[in-house]
Amino acid sequence: MSDHYRDEFPVTKKMAYFNHAAVAPLSKRALERVHAWANDMAEHGDLHEGDWWVEIEEMRARAARLLHAEKEEIAILKNTSEGIGFVAEGFPWKKGDNVVIAQGEYPANVYPWMHLQSRGVAVKTVPERDARIPFEEIEAAIDERTRLLSISFIQFATGFRSDLAALGRLCRDRGIDFCVDAIQGLGVFDIDMRELGIDYLTADGHKWLVSPEGAAIFAIAKDNIPKIRPVSIGWKSVVDFLNYSTIDFRLRDDAARFENGTLNVGGTVALGASLTLFEEVGIETINSLVKRNTDDLVTMLEAEGATIVSSRREGEWSGIVCFQWPDEDARAVVKRCRRQDVIISTRAGRLRASPHFYTNAEDLQRLRSALVNR
What we know:
13 strands, Aspartate Aminotransferase, domain 2, 11 helices, 2 domains
């Protein structure tokens, strides 16, 4: 199955790409939609704008299906940070409230919450232990003034995957809201927002969804849409947004109220094209292939003397494998690999490899060769 879809990824003609947790190569169908949009704009200007807006709405529907959500719960934003920022700034905080986050989070899920401290909102940080975020530590951090838990589904620097179902139940039991940065898991793991009890979820497409940077999915449970005050209002936020001559300030009642103006059309239709690939292959199949590829990767690395940092426990593994390579600086290893067109990265002083479903045994062998042949 993975080899069947190799032709969908032009990067495979030259590179062994193990860096989807950073910026993924575009799928062929995403590339084709960007080209089609750019060519149309170059040749016709906005003559066919309506056709592209239809395609944007199709992308919104696909994103909703991916999350088992409703189309009206999906907003299209620029990036993950924007979605988290909208929740942080729009939530009805009171002085003395607190938000719970985890140690080692990507800065996009730290700074928006820290910015609230000037308004009297405290940030409680759950410690990371042995490259894991223990559920018990999160549970203990929540107190009577906690209003929201915000966590990455998968931690970027360790690959640890949180149990969203358990955390969702915890948040419901404690009466707090649940915000998830899903960028490192959406496209590999099935995420059912309603079943998991997620109130807010944000992820853009340039990692596991193999799409361009600058187009993101922001999902908000419909009952929470009135709760979050939009902090960036524009012409597209209102009900009658195509009526430019009449000012009628009535906010849209769906998640699109958070889209304040013109979208990244090229990036959005490209993301929509990539989502057709995920529907075609199926998340369950993609998940099993990523599991196989990361298992094979770990087996190879351990055989060559590497120390695996990422948890491989059932329920905690992800597409990210972080490891220590013996007796060599991580940055030097990355440079050597890149000279051989093998792409990995470093995070927190460790090496990080993140294969996708189309990765095959030849890619793995190229990685092994690049690592061992100094």
